[in-house]
């Protein structure tokens, strides 16, 4: 964490003619994340005419609106008022961390060895460090249910691959620079893949298809490969 | 009963006006690229304006109508015909049972919309029928149509409405228009003066790297005063972002929910339909306008749609 800026400082600007961005200091910090979560909770509770939806990010939250029903100026005034007596965020902080079972290494994590070599650590040490940290879901983006996590130990940081892999399987757990994350769907990507989770972060058959939301805390739990084999192949 | 897909065409997907409310979960909006064309088609048929239709891209499909129905084609002119006879666009047309709908050379635009009276029988996913190709949800089995698919109509065709009038369609823009209105993006000020000048003075060409997710543009490079890593933030349909190598990308209907490249500008909503009809090699030019002007143009467009709605409700009674 860097020196934390005041999470009460923000400015508003338009993103086109149908969205307003509430922007905090451009850094990854827990107080700013809490503020953004509080805004989301407030909007869940008190919607307004012309509201479409909101998208939280690391240091900003964007509100989409219908300009035929509310103008940018009206909305900006409303945001100022909302920010004056915004209650604190409630979700996430009290509840237990969500456990994500992971099979590390082997065919499920082909880049685990590289990550170990790069950081001059053993494979066991990488697994231990990766799975003994609690991570905060700062935001969801890039793909359905893809969590941007904060809190990874810098001892296992590894640069992205120079050439992205054309297809990374759903459930792959990877490291890119100082970040770690899980691919919810099959997609191309440049992350170093160290394992595979046995649970769905995105289940397209479900009415609530996405497992995680901004503000959740997660923990990776090492499991044996046979659990994954059972999950995937039914054996 | 409905139509049977004989040939699928280049990319034919079921789309409505989009899936809203799930972007915070990383689930994109998707929906029609040219929403105006889809909305007008639906209204002229007497449908709700957000009814799902078939988005047809450049090379159209071949569709066999297994029952008679009332349909309309709007958007790009991809030279449609019924059993070999040219089909008039922008007005409801009765299609007899057993007819073959085919397409020919693209005459103008890139994306045509086929709507049917009453709509298609499609199960909504998360409140929308829009096809989200990458995640495999929505539309017809979460994918583009393929030969052998049978897409059912929601209701049987009732030959009640007579359509012998010509609607005033001035609200649909000329597709050869090159100038695209934009307002300054959040990171506008991070770009060099020369790059800003180049951004608004040059003609950009839409590269072959263009699809429902976005268009990569060819032109003189656009650069920032200094390259800084920025934190991912919201992006949307019409966001123009510039990666370090300097070639802008306009995000389209299948835009990601968040992105990490600087956002130089945002295409105004009223200009998205024109943009959706561009194709590889099309030339475009950006014009900077104010937020107030952008919202005024959008309101004018919405007002015209309301007028059309009113006229139609009188005609259909």
UniProtKB/TrEMBL annotation, chain A:
GO terms for molecular function: 5-oxoprolinase (ATP-hydrolyzing) activity; ATP binding. Keywords: ATP-binding, Hydrolase, Nucleotide-binding. It is an enzyme of class 3 (hydrolase). InterPro entries: CT_C_D (IPR003833), Cyclophilin-like_dom_sf (IPR029000), PxpB (IPR010016). Residues 10-212 form the Carboxyltransferase domain. It comes from the Bacteria. The keyword Zinc-finger does not apply. Its EC number is 3.5.2.9. This is 5-oxoprolinase subunit PxpB.
Automatic annotation (TrEMBL), chain B:
Signal peptide: none annotated. This is Biotin-dependent carboxyltransferase. NCBIfam families: urea_amlyse_rel. Keywords: ATP-binding, Coiled coil, Hydrolase, Nucleotide-binding, Transferase. It comes from the Bacteria. Residues 24-304 form the Carboxyltransferase domain. Residues 284-311 form a coiled coil. InterPro entries: CT_A_B, Cyclophilin-like_dom_sf, PxpC. The keyword GTP-binding does not apply. One of its GO terms (molecular function) is ATP binding. SMART domains: AHS2. It holds the Pfam family CT_A_B. The keyword Hydrolase applies.
């Amino acid at each position: 964490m860097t020196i934390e800026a005041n999470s009460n400082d923000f400015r508003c600007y338009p993103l086109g003619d149908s969205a307003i961005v509430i922007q905090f200091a451009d850094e990854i910090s827990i107080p700013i994340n809490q503020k953004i979560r509080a805004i989301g909770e407030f909007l869940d509770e008190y919607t307004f005419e012309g509201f479409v939806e909101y998208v939280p990010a690391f240091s900003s939250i964007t509100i989409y609106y219908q300009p035929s029903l509310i103008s940018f100026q009206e909305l900006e005034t409303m945001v100022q008022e909302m920010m004056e007596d915004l209650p604190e965020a409630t979700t996430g902080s009290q509840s237990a961390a969500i456990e994500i079972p992971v099979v590390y290494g082997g065919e499920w994590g082909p880049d685990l060895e590289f990550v170990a070599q790069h950081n001059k650590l053993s494979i066991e040490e990488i697994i231990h460090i990766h799975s003994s940290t609690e991570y905060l879901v700062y935001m969801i983006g890039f793909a359905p249910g893809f969590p941007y996590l904060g809190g990874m130990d810098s001892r296992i940081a590894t640069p992205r691959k120079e050439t992205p892999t054309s297809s990374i399987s759903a459930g792959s757990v990877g490291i890119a620079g100082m970040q770690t994350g899980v691919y919810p769907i099959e997609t191309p990507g440049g992350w170093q893949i160290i394992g595979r989770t046995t649970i769905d972060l995105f289940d397209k058959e479900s009415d609530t298809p996405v497992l995680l939301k901004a503000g959740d805390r997660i923990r990776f739990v090492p499991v044996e490969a046979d659990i994954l084999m059972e999950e995937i192949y039914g054996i | 009963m409905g139509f049977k897909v004989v040939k699928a065409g280049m990319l034919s997907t079921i789309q409505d006006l989009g899936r809203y409310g799930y972007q915070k979960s990383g689930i994109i909006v998707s929906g029609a690229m040219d929403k105006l064309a889809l909305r007008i088609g639906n209204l002229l048929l007497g449908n709700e304006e957000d009814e799902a239709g078939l988005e047809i891209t450049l090379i159209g499909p071949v569709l066999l109508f297994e029952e008679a129905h009332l349909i309309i084609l709007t958007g790009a002119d991809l030279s449609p015909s019924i059993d070999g006879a040219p089909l008039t666009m922008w007005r409801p047309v009765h299609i007899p049972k057993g007819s073959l709908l085919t397409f020919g050379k693209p005459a103008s635009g890139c994306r045509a919309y086929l709507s049917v009276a009453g709509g298609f029988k499609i199960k909504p996913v998360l409140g929308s029928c829009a096809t989200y190709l990458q995640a495999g949800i929505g539309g017809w089995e979460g994918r583009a149509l393929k030969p052998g698919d049978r897409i059912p109509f929601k209701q049987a065709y009732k030959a009640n409405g007579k359509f012998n009038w010509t609607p005033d369609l001035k609200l649909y823009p000329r597709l050869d228009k090159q100038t695209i209105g934009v307002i300054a993006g959040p990171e506008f000020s991070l770009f060099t003066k020369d790059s800003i000048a180049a951004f608004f003075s040059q003609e950009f060409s839409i590269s072959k790297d263009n699809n429902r997710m976005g268009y990569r543009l060819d032109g003189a490079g656009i650069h920032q005063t200094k390259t800084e890593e920025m934190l991912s933030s919201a992006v949307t349909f019409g966001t123009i972002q510039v990666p370090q190598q300097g070639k802008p990308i306009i995000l389209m209907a299948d835009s990601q929910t968040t992105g990490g490249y600087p956002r130089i500008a945002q295409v105004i909503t009223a200009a998205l339909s024109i943009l959706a009809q561009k194709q590889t090699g099309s030339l475009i030019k950006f014009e900077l306008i104010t937020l107030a002007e952008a919202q005024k143009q959008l309101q004018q467009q919405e007002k015209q749609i309301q007028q059309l709605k009113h006229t139609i409700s009188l005609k259909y009674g």
